[in-house]
Design brief:
CATH superfamily of the largest domain: HAD superfamily/HAD-like
Number of helices: 9
Radius of gyration: 19 Å
Helix content: 25-40%
Order of helices and strands: EHEHEHEEEHEEHEEHEHEHEH
Strand order of the largest sheet: 1-13-12-11-2-3-4-5-6
Number of strands: 13
Mean pLDDT: 87
Shape: globular
CATH architecture of the largest domain: 3-Layer(aba) Sandwich
CATH topology of the largest domain: Rossmann fold
Largest sheet: 9 strands, mixed
Strand content: 15-25%
CATH class of the largest domain: Alpha Beta
Distance between the termini: 32 Å
Length: 285
């Protein structure tokens, strides 16, 4: 894979093509032109942390990169849907996206959702786990060493060690032991381990459900959990040769090559994404 410089975008080969010729256009401009022909049937998906907003030592302090909100607001009326699919709760996304109109929010890997500013709906199977998560957050604060940031999200608990990287192995070992004890799912991320209810919801399932009736989709993500979303677009394209799917990695050193290698296109930062979406608007409008 070629390396990208700041503000640039490169292409990497699609996954698992076998002997088929790549259907993905060779550059972003052609990809947007192809999208314009089916914009009314295209969904644009975005992760939040590391994609729309730069990662911060304090996960509560992050803000979307410049130009991102304006671009999303302009894109929403010209495509079928704009959807944010994130590990964050829906309320957090709503607050940090400034109440954008016409944008669907999927929080906690799909355990919560809100359509176009509507009420937040929680996956019923996850609700009984709220007390367990609250108790787990209290236990983590009591037992994990100073430097660990415990983020309680009502339906999950995220254990961060960004400000103390040396704690990673200890925090991971503790978190995985608790997950086994309580029967929870584990989601690894960028200097974070998240513990979730054993409910069958993740980014791949959310994207797979939404694109069943779509003619095309883009997914923008930066972390290993986004690879499942990329795979959902690959599966949809494999089932329907007329479906047009593009996977974009907002690459970063913390996840290495794994996410970028799974993508069609790569950007190097949320700021570059804001510029990229702004340049895409004339193609769609």
């Amino acid at each position: 894979m070629s390396r990208c410089r700041r503000g640039t975008l490169t292409r990497v080969p699609p996954l698992n093509l076998g002997n088929q010729q790549p259907k993905t256009p060779l550059d972003a401009e052609h990809a947007w032109r192809a999208t314009a022909a089916r914009a009314a049937h295209t969904v644009l998906f975005f992760d939040f942390d590391g994609t729309l907003a730069p990662v911060d030592d304090d996960p509560t302090a992050v803000q979307p990169a410049p130009k991102v909100l304006a671009a999303l607001e302009a894109l929403a009326p010209v495509v079928q849907r704009v959807a944010i699919v994130s590990a964050r709760p829906v309320d957090f996304l709503r607050d940090h996206l400034g109440g954008l109109a016409g944008v669907d929010l999927y929080g906690l890997y799909g355990l919560e959702h809100s359509h176009s500013g509507g009420e937040t709906v929680t996956e019923p199977a996850a609700l009984p786990w709220v007390p367990t998560m609250a108790e787990l957050a209290d236990l983590a604060r009591a037992e994990l060493p100073a430097g660990t940031l415990v983020e309680f999200k009502r339906l999950s608990v995220a254990l961060h060690w960004r400000t103390a990287p040396g704690l990673g192995p200890q925090v991971e070992q503790w978190g995985r032991a608790q997950a086994e004890r309580l029967g929870l799912k584990v989601q690894a991320g960028r200097m974070v381990l998240e513990l979730k209810p054993p409910v069958d919801r993740d980014k791949g399932l959310v994207i797979g459900e939404i694109v069943r009736d779509a003619g095309g989709a883009w997914y923008f993500g930066d972390d290993v959990s986004d690879i499942k979303a990329f795979a959902a677009l690959r599966a949809r394209a494999a089932a329907d040769p007329d479906f047009f799917g593009i996977c974009v990695a907002v690459a970063n050193p913390e996840t290495g090559h794994e996410v970028a290698d799974a993508a069609d296109l790569t950007l190097d930062s949320p700021a570059a994404l804001g510029d990229f979406l702004t340049r895409a608007l004339p193609h769609l409008t």
